[in-house]
Amino acid sequence: MFPAAVVHSFWVWLAAVSPGRLAVVMTSTDPPARPAGSPRSRSARSSRTRRAGPLPAGSRPAGAAAALGRYGEALAVRYLRELGMEVLDRNWRCEHGEVDVVARDGDCIVICEVKTRRAAGFGEPVEAVTFAKAMRLRRLAAAYVKGPGAGGHAAQVRVDVVGILCRPGRPAVVRHVVGVGS
């Protein structure tokens, strides 16, 4: 993981090269409730450490974090559709990694990374996308456009980040950063 200063300097650079590209929207949809065996309880942590071996390739973590991630992706898809984008794919995978949402905005293919958090204690959700992650998303965008089923004829390709902050008891806050790493 990168030190906070590196992540912060990346976002300062991003704000300087792309002013006016941030949008904030609030929604009244509440995040899913924390399950009884959430990672915050001591028993859940100890049971996780007693696992027999590594998780199988391609499996997702169970519990509160996975539920929050699914909720965030669903909210991001709804937000993008409200903006007039057509969602082409969700959780698209290739040998380079996974893209949370692939959408079309006019003649532009939008590769969208979704980050969902319950609190901003470690920074805003969009700050979790480092420079290295933005470059990986660009490689994934190139792989998507070259791959089968994508048509390969997009006039433009763009990488966006949708950050969702789900504080308990408050409406979710959606922050959309357009054109990351471009």
Keywords:
single chain, 182 residues, alpha+beta, Trna Endonuclease, Chain: A, domain 1, globular
What is the structure about, briefly put?
This protein has 182 residues and is of the alpha+beta class.
> What is the strand content?
25-35%
| Quaternary | single chain
Average of pLDDT: 75
Q: State Rg.
A: 17 Å
What's the number of domains? 1
Walk across the major sheet and give the strand order.
Answer: 1-6-5-4-3-2
Main sheet?
6 strands, mixed
Outline the low-pLDDT stretches: 1-29, 41-53
N-to-C terminal Cα separation, in Å?
22 Å
Description:
This protein has 182 residues and is of the alpha+beta class. It has a single domain, classed as Trna Endonuclease, Chain: A, domain 1, CATH 3.40.1350. It is 31% helix and 27% strand. The chain is built from four helices and six strands. It has helices spanning 4-17, 42-49, 64-82, 131-146, and strands spanning 22-27, 86-94, 97-105, 108-117, 156-165, 172-177. The protein has a six-stranded mixed β-sheet, sandwiched between helices. The longest helix has 19 residues, at 64-82. The chain starts with a helix and ends in a 5-residue tail after the last strand. The model is unreliable at 1-29 and 41-53 (pLDDT under 50).
List the helices and strands and how they pair.
Layout: H1 4-17, E1 22-27, H2 42-49, H3 64-82, E2 86-94, E3 97-105, E4 108-117, H4 131-146, E5 156-165, E6 172-177
Parallel strand pairs: 4-5
Antiparallel strand pairs: 1-6, 2-3, 3-4, 5-6
